[in-house]
Amino acid sequence: MTGASANHSSVHRPVMPREVLAALDPRPGHVVLDGTVGAGGHARLLLSRIGPQGLLIGIDRDPAMVSLAARVLDAPNVWLLTGSYARADGLIDRLAAEDSRFAFAWTQHEAAVDCALLDLGWSSDQLADAGRGFAFDASGTLDMRYSVEVGPAAWELLETATQEEIADWLRRYGEERYADRIAAEIVRRRGEKPIRRADELARLVIDALPQSVVVRARRHPATRVFQALRIRVNRELEELQQGLNQTLPRLVRPGGRLAVISFHSLEDRYVKKAFSGPWWRALGKPVTPTATEVQVNPRSRSAKLRVAERTSRMPEPPAEECAEQ
Ligand SMILES: C[S@@+](CC[C@H](N)C(=O)[O-])C[C@H]1O[C@@H](n2cnc3c(N)ncnc32)[C@H](O)[C@@H]1O
Fold first, then answer.
1. Is 159 found in the same domain as 117?
2. Is the CB of 58 under 6 A from ligand 1?
3. Both 27 and 113 in a single domain?
4. Could you tell me the distance, in angstroms and rounded to a whole number, from the CA of residue 11 to the centre of ligand 1?
5. Cβ–ligand 1 contact at 62 (below 6 Å)
6. For the stretch 184-210, what's the b/e string if a residue is b when 16 or more beta carbons lie within 10 angstroms of its beta carbon?
């Protein structure tokens, strides 16, 4: 990759950093799990609060992001892992089995997390990398995977799925009103030439939509289509559901906190539901960025932060570990 390669520094700005710190309230000696560590923007701030007696575990599905995080989180009480937060318990167990220094520190901290953070979706570093296919104008491959372990890339899915499947993804994950029309155009075009690039897909969507919709659009007309594909490629909603309802309840101690930043209503619905379920008690109202932050960091404009406290209910023992990370 290029944008977030080891030769580049991060272009990502952490969203609502002050609000995240206030919500999680990390204290010296706490254990922090950043399940979407990205370039380490939030994690660096959290680390400064927990001090050398604390423990920070950072996880990201994208190995290139883990490399970027390692640059700013170079401390003996930080462990960075490549994999999904949805399987954080398995990753941590494996680390404890392989690394005696971590095993000692983890046991000293009662093998439980005080503060966990999920900052969902892609980072600006991944968006800036034309080879990843996240951006509308990307001339590289329409890949969209956070990790090559995940499964087929977006272009492969578009090449093999039926028109009905594509329309279903666009409706379900993008809430796209013109799903049938766009799916039909994808199938027609791929019959002429494979759709391999993000900019080709963006152009195709514009061509498929009624002209009046394109003219009136306040965002890029392909926003919903790109969101839908990215969610489908990375199975983002399944990961979120597993993380919120199974994995994090096992790791976060009763009374510990979980903060989640979501960027669209589908994700937020899952968070809201989990935070009214048996494992979490919502704290306060959802928080959105200030007008100043949105001005400085336009990516933050659709962000919503929810925070919850872990209830005292005890979870089931972990299910059998899954091979995929
Ligand atoms: C918005 S960025 C996080 C930015 C980070 N908070 C910071 O301040 O630098 C989201 C990150 O989550 C990662 N990601 C997405 N799905 C994931 C999953 N299921 N498990 C772990 N990481 C994931 C992406 O690769 C991306 O680096």
1. no
2. no
3. yes
4. 14
5. yes
6. ebbbebbeeeebbbbbbbbbbbbebbe
User: Can you tell me which atom of ligand 1 is nearest the CA of 38?
Assistant: 27
**CATH number for the domain including 210?**
1.10.150.170
For residue 139, the model assigns a pLDDT of 85
pLDDT digits (tens, 9 = 90+) for 5-25: 445 578 879 999 999 999 999
Check if the beta carbon of residue 306 is closer than 8 Å to that of residue 282: yes
Give pLDDT tens digits for 179-230: 999 999 999 999 999 999 999 999 999 999 999 999 999 899 999 999 999 9
Is this structure's pTM higher than 0.90? yes
The answer, yes or no, to whether any atom of ligand 1 lies below 6 A from the CB of 267, is: no
Of 15, 36, 72, best ligand 1 pocket probe by most atoms within 8 Å of the beta carbon: 36
Same domain, 26 and 120: yes
Q: Is 119 in the pocket of ligand 1 (CB under 6 A)?
A: yes
| Each residue's pLDDT tens digit, 72-114 | 999 999 999 999 999 999 999 999 999 999 999 999 999 999 9
Residues 24 and 107 in one domain: yes
For residue 156, give both structure tokens: 């492969």
**117, 33 in Cβ contact below 8 A?**
yes
279 exposure class (CB count in 10 Å sphere: 0-12, 13-18, 19+): buried
Whether residue 60 has its Cβ less than 6 Å from ligand 1: yes
Domain residues for the domain of 289 are 17-124+237-310
